[in-house]
Amino acid sequence: MKPLVLVSLALVVLGGCGGESPSLPTPPLATPSPDSRLVVVPGAATGPTAIAFVSAEPSPGAALTGCGPGAAGCRGRLRMAFRLMPTGTGSVLWVRVFLHASSKRACFVATGEPLALRAGEARMVEVVFTEYDACATPFEIATMAAVVEGTVEVGSRQEWAVHYSFMP
After folding, report:
1. Structural domains counted in the chain
2. Rg of the Cα atoms in the chain
3. Which of the residues 46, 84, 116, 156 has the least number of beta carbons within 10 Å of its own beta carbon?
């Protein structure tokens, strides 16, 4: 009888080898994900001109310190570049970019110069955030919107999720 018990036990043990055990699920592989504060994520867009974020100095995710009690203390410390790709031809009065705090208040605004766009020809626009609202520090920027204000052939808007911290 002992050999029969040993054979049965061996079959049970061997039956579990080589296959996946339903009681022990395979652990998921850890996949690194980018820090969402360091990326600019496109959102809603309207109009015939595609507006693409190109770069910023300092980079998204940065904490700007030494602003004092409000946004005025960090005026001019942030600059960005955008690429405009129009499908139509027309005049642009300005490109205006807004940085919105988590509260939805536009704490900083940058305005670019007038320009002309031609269908299919990309144009680079650089802006510096010199206009500000009375946002008390500390505050977090959560979204950004760029508006191409011009003729109906080129007028457009693009939104993004972006993160900046402004500190006293």
Report:
1. 1
2. 27
3. 46
